[in-house]
Design a protein that fits this description.
Layout (H helix, E strand, L loop, with lengths): L19 H5 L16 E6 L16 H10 L4 E8 L2 E11 L8 E3 L5 E5 L14 H13 L18 E5 L2 E5 L9 H6 L8 H5 L10 H6 L8 E7 L3 E6 L12 E6 L3 H10 L4 E2 L4 H7 L5 E2 L8 E7 L9 H9 L3 H8 L4 E3 L23 H10 L5 E8 L3 H13 L5 E8 L1 H10 L4 E7 L5 H8 L14 H12 L9 H14 L2 E7 L4 E3 L2 E2 L2 E2 L11 E2 L3
Parallel strand pairs: 1-10, 1-11, 3-21, 15-16, 15-17
Antiparallel strand pairs: 2-3, 4-5, 5-7, 6-7, 8-9, 9-10, 11-19, 12-19, 13-17, 13-18, 14-18, 20-22
Helix pairs in contact: 7-8, 9-11, 15-16
């Protein structure tokens, strides 16, 4: 098994000496410089390293973990990339085969309940074992059995490995249960939940106490089919990924990716601007603005992003048990000021949960709400209130959201709201969010599965990890059933019903996508292939030296 172990390289310097010099490497070592890295290697400044290489064994939704999972693993399908203004943007309505056959990846039965996949032949894992349908079946069973597995999110559609039929070595069928007409299953297999393991390689590391090799897979790569493997890791400092020459879509142009931990966003931006690194991830809006326009730096921009600020006003707590008060609060938010002052223009007003990326025809792109203190006061007056006290809770680990909350507190006064901003530790924020102890909160969020029915079924009706701000009603359930029964959301027949669902969410005003943010990475101009993925991670497999 090639380079499979997560190699912990002991630091040769004392912890107190781990400053910029330990992170930056030598000047000019990136793709654009003359140092050791060379044109087929990139150096990346990151905020932290991944905590696990196994999504199912240790789920932690960090940017670093998403990057590791997507680069070490492959799925049956990918969303198709479309180049727009120099950025490779994934089209969430188009699928292409990866481990599945390129020309005939899948077939769907007439009743929409059976999906049959045709696997590519001649594909081998990072361990050198050939891909078979049994690898897919075993991977699905693992997702259902391991405590951190993600398929249980969609148990209404798929909940048992008995629904998987291995037809032959390169053909496998999924028999679903009540999937409805709005296609959710393909995006599930395309996203983070759809990674396929090499069964043989994994079983070599399974034990009686750990039959799914979770302990091994958390700390090791080499049992996947992805474009990269872990070459080495210096704990807390650096991770090196090596290109997989047997990757099914071809060996990546970038042969080596060195991720260096640089905790400060401003320092990451400075290192990119000076040529010490080729990519800087997780930059603050202020630091993005600081490097924008620099001759050696390029910043991806997309027409319709999927990263947003999630505003939750809990319906089971006063004063937000009153819809009029919830609507009033949404009118009390200074959206334009937040976009200009906090996000430096790297954000857009929100039309609601449904965005153009979902492909719903004629979906409104107009903001669901705008700052209108007079309208807010009218709604409060209609609710029988002259002013309202609100505690707005945010995590103290997300500076831009803290700044956003403080701006809301300042400008909401003119709309009749007295807002106290509560900054909780990341741990306390996560607990309070799950246990629904907060009155109102703002959190960063993205919808990785861009299908309307999944958005609503997962985020809105009461999943504890997403605040349970929204309380379903019979009217809501009827609207959802009508929309799903009408067909795929991208069809003209279903579109009016999904627009009605979107309007209902906006008017309910309890759980809102407050504004949408642009990508937070920046790249050297010596690189082509900037990408925007469903998980907002850099896809190093499509990155390449400029001009190639």
């Amino acid at each position: 098994m090639r380079n499979s172990r997560r190699t912990w390289v002991l630091a040769a310097v004392a912890a107190g000496a781990l400053g910029l010099s330990a992170c930056a490497g030598t000047p000019g070592s990136g793709a654009g410089g003359d140092g050791a890295a060379g044109a087929d290697a990139v150096t990346v400044a990151v905020a932290a390293l991944p905590t696990s290489y196994d999504l199912e064994g240790a789920w932690n939704a960090s940017n670093e973990n998403y990057t590791a999972w997507t680069q070490l693993h492959a799925n049956l399908l990918n969303y198709k990339y479309v180049e727009k203004d120099g950025v490779m943007v994934q089209d969430f309505t188009q699928f292409e085969g990866v481990l599945a056959d390129a020309d005939n990846p899948y077939e769907i039965s007439d009743d929409g309940q059976t999906y049959t996949f045709h696997l590519r032949e001649g594909v081998v894992s990072q361990a050198g074992n050939p891909l078979t349908a049994e690898d897919v079946r075993w991977s699905i069973e693992r997702k259902l059995e391991v405590a951190g597995g993600r398929l249980p999110q969609v148990a209404d559609y798929f909940n048992s490995v008995d629904q998987v039929e291995v037809i032959d070595d390169h053909t496998i069928a999924f028999h679903l249960d009540g999937v409805g007409n709005d296609n959710v299953f393909l995006p599930i297999l395309t996203g983070q939940m759809g990674h396929i393991w090499d069964k043989k390689a994994m079983e070599e590391h399974a034990t009686e106490d750990d039959p799914w090799a979770v302990e091994w897979a958390t700390q090791n790569s080499g049992a996947g089919f992805g474009p990269y493997e872990v070459s080495s890791e210096t704990e807390g400092q650096q991770l090196v990924l090596e290109a997989n020459p047997d990757y099914v879509l071809g060996e990546p142009a970038v042969k080596s990716v060195t991720m260096q931990v640089v905790p400060d966003s401003g320092t990451r931006a400075t290192m990119l601007n000076s040529g010490d690194v080729d990519v800087a991830e997780s930059l603050s809006p202020t630091d993005l603005a600081a490097v924008a326009g620099q001759e050696s730096v390029q910043i991806p921009s997309v027409e319709n992003s999927i990263e947003f600020l999630d505003l939750s006003l809990l319906e089971n707590k006063a004063p937000f048990d009153d819809q009029l008060v919830r609507q009033a609060f949404n009118y009390a938010i200074p959206y334009d000021k937040i976009i200009d002052q906090v996000y430096q223009g790297y954000a857009k007003p929100s039309p609601g949960w449904f965005t153009p990326t979902m492909g719903v025809p004629d979906l409104s792109t107009e903001p669901a709400y705008s700052y209108d203190p007079d309208k807010a006061k009218e709604l409060l007056d209609e609710a029988g209130k002259s002013s309202v006290d609100v505690t707005l809770t945010v995590s103290n680990a997300v500076p831009d959201i803290i700044d956003t909350a403080l701006l809301i507190a300042s400008d909401a006064k003119d709309a009749g709201f007295n807002v106290q901003v509560e900054q909780a530790s990341a741990a306390d924020f996560g607990t309070g969010r799950a246990e629904q102890t907060f009155q109102a909160l703002i959190a960063p969020m993205r919808v990785q599965i861009q299908v309307p029915s999944f958005v609503n079924n997962f985020f809105l009706p009461g999943d504890p990890s997403n605040t349970s701000a929204f309380q379903p009603t019979q009217e809501w359930k009827d609207l959802m059933k009508t929309a799903i029964d009408a067909g795929e959301a991208t069809s003209e027949e279903a579109a009016p019903h999904w627009r009605a669902v979107n309007d209902f969410i906006n008017q309910d005003a309890s759980h809102m996508a407050m504004l949408y943010k642009q990508p937070n990475q920046a790249f050297s101009t010596s690189l082509d292939g900037m990408s925007y993925r469903y998980d907002n991670t850099v896809d190093y497999a499509v990155l390449k030296p400029a001009g190639e």
